[in-house]
Amino acid sequence: MDAHAKHEGPLPPLWHYGETEHDPISTKTLGFWLYMLSDALIFAGLFAAYGVLDQPMNAAGGPGIAKIVHPVAAFWQTIAVLSSVLAYSLATVALKTGNRNGVLAGIIAAIVLGIIFVGLEFADFASLFAIGATPDTSGMLSAFYILVATHGLHMMFGILWMLVLIPQIFLSGFNTAVVTRLLNLRLFWQFQASVWVCVYVFVYLRGTIQ
Amino acid sequence: MLRKHAAWLAAALPVAGCGTEYRLFHPAGPVANSELHFTVLNTAVMLVIIIPTTILTMVFALRYRKSRQAAYDPSFSHSLVLELLMWGVPLVITVILTFCTYASVFAVNPADPTSLDNQADPGAVAPPLNVDVITTDWQWIFIYPDQHIATIDDLVVPAGRTVRLRLSSATVTNDFYIPQVAPMIDVMPGMVTHDAFRVNRAGAYEGFSADFSGAGFSWMQFSTRIFSPADFSAWVAKTQAAPDHLDYARFLQIAQPTINETAAPHYFSNVGPNLFADVDMAVMDGKVFPVPADLDAKGPYPTPTLGKQDEVKSGT
Amino acid sequence: MFVQLQGAWSPLFGRLTLDSIPYSNPIIIFAFAFSVIAGLAVVIPVLYYGKVGYIFREWICSVDHKKIGVMYIILGLVMLFRGFVDGMMIRTQQVMADGPHSPGFLEAQHGYIPPSHFDQIYSSHGTLMILFAATPILTGLGNVIVPLQIGARDMAFPRMNAISLWLTVMGAMLVMASLFIGDFSDAGWVGLTPLTELPYSPSVGVDYWMWAIQISSIGTTLNAINIITTIIGMRAPGMRWDRLPIFTWTTLSTSIIGLTAFPILGVALALLGADRYLGTHFYTAGLGGNLMLYTDLFWIWGHPEVYFLVLPAFGILSEVIPTFSEKPLFGYITMVAATFAIAGISWSVWLHHFFTMGAGPMVNTFFSVATMLVGIPTGVKVFNWILTMYRGRITYTTPMLWSVGALLLLLIGGLTGVMLANPAINYTVHNSVFVIAHFHCMVLLIAFTIFAAIIYWFPKVFGFTLDEHNGKMFFWTFCIATTVVFTAMFTLGFEGETRRLDYLYDPDWMPMLIVEEIGIGFYCLSVFYFFRMLYVSIRDREKNRCGADPWGTARTLEWLTHSPVPFYNFAVTPQVHELDELAWRRANNCEALMPETYDPIHMPKNSMVPIIIGVFAFGFGFGMVWRIWWMAGFSLLAIIATVIISSFTPDPGYTITAEEMRRLEERKEPPGIVADSHIPRPMAEERIV
Fold first, then answer.
1. Cβ atoms of residues C97 and C517 within 8 Å
2. Domain C18-678 sits in CATH 1.20.210.10
3. How far is CA C306 from the centre of its chain?
4. Reported confidence tier of residue B6, pLDDT bands at 50, 70, 90
5. Burial label, C441 (beta-carbon count in 10 A; 0-12, 13-18, 19+)
6. Which member of A206, B22, B279, C467 lies 3.0 to 4.6 Å from C536 by CB, making a disulfide possible if both were Cys?
7. Hey, where are the domains in chain B?
8. Which residues 619-678 in chain C show a CB within 8 A of chain B?
9. Collapsing DSSP states into helix, strand and coil, what is residue C97?
10. How far apart are CA C588 and CA C604, in angstroms?
11. Interface contact flag, C480 B107, Cβ < 8 Å
12. In chain B, which residue's Cα lies nearest the Cα of C341?
């Protein structure tokens, strides 16, 4: 273990010939996990802000969380996002056998369900705007909107990613790059569903009982 | 090496700081005394590690130069005993400092410093003087709710009596700081903080804001004058006859962005009883005093909107 | 839109008007002239020698980690210079504006800078020094050195590496733009609320500050992902975790901090942005906002950030000191443990930045104890460095001088840091110049190690050594300056002077302010010696050409390959046998042995995508600052479109054959960073529109 000690006997090989193969898919996936760690911390910061601004005085005389969350309506959003993840996961199962139609069917179903999720969220926000519960009403509402909308924005980026992948599957088939993106998107999509579960529990369910 | 001399100089300077400009070494009250006590204690404990380490650094750096031909041992790169010492001794020092911290933090806690509770001191049992403090952009307003008077930029208190302050801001965060007198505390809009101090001898000190609050920040000094009890009563009586009154409407005028360049004081009588609470509630309801974007491109600065008064020294 | 703005807004130009350009401010006009002349001094020779294409293809579009690292360092040094000029202006204003009878010049009542300009100067001083000087230089050093130290050919994601660089550059360009178009934030580099809310900071200054930091933070986070993946996945065979060079270990822990902490800064600033753009109430004093939320979120990032800066500095010390003591680093395993202990504990200390906010005795005690605990692994590191020097054979080259200076600064900074960790002391010196002096000791020790690292690794990257005499003059003048300025500043802290004052009301402070100004004079002298060192070294570069190991006693893998490093790093990947591999090879007389045969290698192509993304990022930032919605929207869509379109043509890279490898390795003229311009690197063929 000592760099200054002389080595006994003949020297071991000094060079490693032949290209050192670093598996590109696992490298890119490790990078993507690290990105998701940073994304998780973004949500951690937003949940922290929400937790701080969740006190009665943060409603500043306006509607409190209990008045603006509709857990039953949001439950349909939960169904939508979880089914979307299920559809996409089935797509990656089809990927194992190289079944292109199966993959495309799963992705399209995931897209449709994702759009339903985002649509339900827009409708919810529209109804809240109609009763005057806008983000600039109070700190509590600001925190609610930004937390939920940040998740919604991530969902929209995921849908865009799926839409971009469809022509790539047609153009390049299941080459390394496309497979890497499909696998990373699965990670991303499942992560967004997990964040939604936290949002649903912490904001919608807990908000109702306050 | 020059750095060696500089290190000793740096250590010697504060010790040589007997001049009164070294405010932190000339505490004027029990809380400031307590702060200095813990400063010295904490530093002394730390120096137990820092001084030998500095000496060792310089000795090794000089002694093991190639030209000095001292002992050379390239295989000396780990030692369990030394590792245990270097993790262990600082850990022990940290434990000692933790006890110091725990003792100190209650002694100087701005909300209720226990260093003011020394029963031998008559000031500890006398009823405290209540002062409400509001900061604006960029002046200090001191309200005496029990005496129904108020001042701008002049904190006058009697010697030997504890002063209990409630602090809030009408605009942005400031920091209440009278170096020799009171522990520092943030002054925040929409929130109320508390501070307390006592000075047993008459004197005059300078207070200011330590948390940057905007263009007029450099002029947020306020004088702190400690009067004997008799002089204080006389001052209160005189101020209760001041021509200017401070109600909420008047407050809205003086709270407009103002750079009080000479920190000229101003006095009010007939102060509304709930002014502090009213200002706090107004801020929580969204009251702001916007700063004009083109403020202060050059002097002279906006003068206090105080009108013609006896004790005003108009700044420009 | 959504919020009340002071001043005009038009759909085409947003808040931008002709009045936004400070024609009448002589200081800014001078700065503009200086910048133009400095820019021309670079641009005109490039045009004259016909190097525009070379610069674009080989540097701006480069995905080579060494070139990217060099560009990071150049950006950092330029911003360091501007930050220094800001610091000089601050000191000069304060010495001129002490006391009610101090004279005023150039539109100022006292001194020569009116308050809001002074406030912008110290805000840009802090922002530039921390985020656009120290961070890029340390990032650049990691970029250049870490792949070499682990025996890799490049980073895991070369193109993303370039994107990180350009995002950081564009953030810095936004800060530079604020000097000439509009103004910068006057609320400090921290930007506490509610001062940074619209009513109290109505101009675009805070918006410039916010977007510059947001854009460059994305770059930093991406870079962290890159480094961590590289260190985990791309080490040479035999490079086990217990053989990893210590600088790589510190870079790994730094990147973990960067990856996890910078998102919190992003959230803190994004919520402030929501307040300023959408009228929300996250941090306002009224309507249910909580201004302390910003302080907490900012400092939850802010404290890990300072360890993000100081851990690479510690890594540099751990490389330089063993090299010039001809001894292995003492206590390698505990050094690594201490590094991760520091990184971990740094997450739990943030409240010590605002003890005075009134959290109460129990909370304050917890954070005080946590802060003191961080001092323990730091102390372990200091002891290990001293014990490395013990019974070594020390040669005082310039890097070693800088390192010993850094050690002494660390001792003073650490002492004052533990003092500040005690709330009782903190209540007397919070926001006073005592705190300024403390953290300047720490950031100056980072600067000392940066200079040590640049001088240490310069020969490896560029193939010739820097002039020692001028280097030592640079060191000594800088050292004297630091001692003079900060001894005076600690003294002023005990005299009760607080920070961020444009006008100082107490004439008692004058003697120490004059002492500080004398110190600034020494800093100016040190800048002169720095430039002279560069000039003499470049002028005499043929005389000072060096081989793979210019210092003779280096210990780690990067010194095994040529100087300057060829673009492929190692011709054949080395097999690693020991910690301090090069020292082991030297002890076994095989450090000069070359591989007998060569294999074809695969390299990534250069790409235009990163600079395109960078330019649009600047457009997005500028558009958002001035609320030119069409510019911001178009730039954002363009970035997304660029990413999507470039994903349709992934880079297959290119292969260098074995014969070409032999020819490259055995040619006479030196290879690498600047000299191999005659070996053009292929460009990727993205179809952008």
1. no
2. yes
3. 11
4. very low
5. buried
6. C467
7. 2-116, 128-291+305-314
8. none
9. coil
10. 35
11. no
12. B87
User: Under CATH, domain B128-291+305-314 is a member of which superfamily?
Assistant: Cupredoxins -  blue copper proteins (2.60.40.420)
Task: Please judge whether B22 and C292 are an interchain contact, meaning their C-beta atoms are less than 8 angstroms apart.
Answer: no
Q: Report the mean per-residue pLDDT for chain C.
A: 92
Q: How many CB atoms lie within 10 A of CB C635?
A: 22
Give mean pLDDT, residues C609-637: 97
Q: Model confidence over A121-139: pLDDT tens digits?
A: 999 999 999 999 999 999 9
Summarize the confidence of residues C216-239 as an average pLDDT: 95
The answer to whether residue A195 neighbours chain C at the CB level (below 8 Å) is no
Q: Can you count the helices (H) and strands (E) in chain C?
A: 20, 3
* Per-residue confidence (pLDDT) for residue C688, from 0 to 100: 37
Q: Which residues contact B127 (CB under 8 A, 6 or more apart)?
A: B161
Domain ranges of chain C: 18-678
Compare all CA atoms of chain B with the CA of C4 and give the residue at the minimum distance.
Answer: B290
- Most A CBs within 10 Å: which of C150, C218, C267, C580, as the mutation test of the A interface? C267
Confidence at residue B16, expressed as pLDDT on a 0 to 100 scale: 52
pLDDT digits (tens, 9 = 90+) for B84-119: 999 999 999 999 999 999 999 999 999 889 988 887
Copy the structure tokens of residue C338.
């201490």
Looking at beta carbons, which residues of chain B come within 8 Å of A4? 74-75
* Helix or strand run (H / E) with residue B209: strand B203-209
Place B303 in a pLDDT band, splitting at 50, 70 and 90: low
Residues of B in contact with C114 (CB under 8 A): 296-299
Neighbours of C192 (CB within 10 A): 20
User: Distance, in angstroms, between A23 CA and closest chain C CA?
Assistant: 9
Please report, for residues A7, C508, C645, the alpha-carbon distance to residue C495 in angstroms, rounded to integers and kept in the order given.
62, 9, 62
Asked if B235 and B156 touch (Cβ cutoff 8 Å), the reply is yes
A36: domain CATH number is: 1.20.120.80
Distance of CA C60 to the CA centre of its chain: 20
**Placement of tokens 């910003």 in the chain:** C294
Residues C282, A142: C-beta atoms closer than 8 Å: yes
Distance from CA of B250 to the nearest CA of C (A): 21
Confidence of residue A60 (pLDDT cuts 50, 70, 90): confident
Tell me the nearest-neighbour CA distance from B117 into chain C, angstroms: 17
A171 touches chain C (CB under 8 A): yes
C685 vs A114, which has greater pLDDT? Answer: A114
Which residue in the set C200, C431, C504 is minimally distant from B211, CB to CB?
C431
At CB < 8 Å, which residues of chain A contact B? 2, 4-5, 57, 60
C674 Cβ partners below 8 Å, 6+ apart?
A: C462, C564
- Residue A45 lies in domain: 25-209
CB distance C195–B213 less than 8 Å?
A: yes
Q: How far apart are CA B113 and CA C134, in angstroms?
A: 41
- The dihedral through the CA atoms of B209, B210, B211, B215 has a sign that is positive
**Using CB atoms and an 8 Å cut-off, which of residues 513-552 of chain C contact chain A?**
none
HEC per residue, C616-641: HHHHHHHHHHHCCHHHHHHHHHHHHH
Residues of B in contact with C202 (CB under 8 A): 290-293
Between the CA of residue C380 and those of B85, B294, C335, C383, C448, what are the distances in Å? 9, 52, 8, 5, 20
Contact present, C481 and C562 (Cβ < 8 Å): no
B282 to chain A, minimum CA–CA distance in Å? Answer: 12
pLDDT at B260: 83
Q: Mean pLDDT across the stretch C561-579?
A: 89
pLDDT digits (tens, 9 = 90+) for C458-480: 999 999 999 999 999 999 999 99
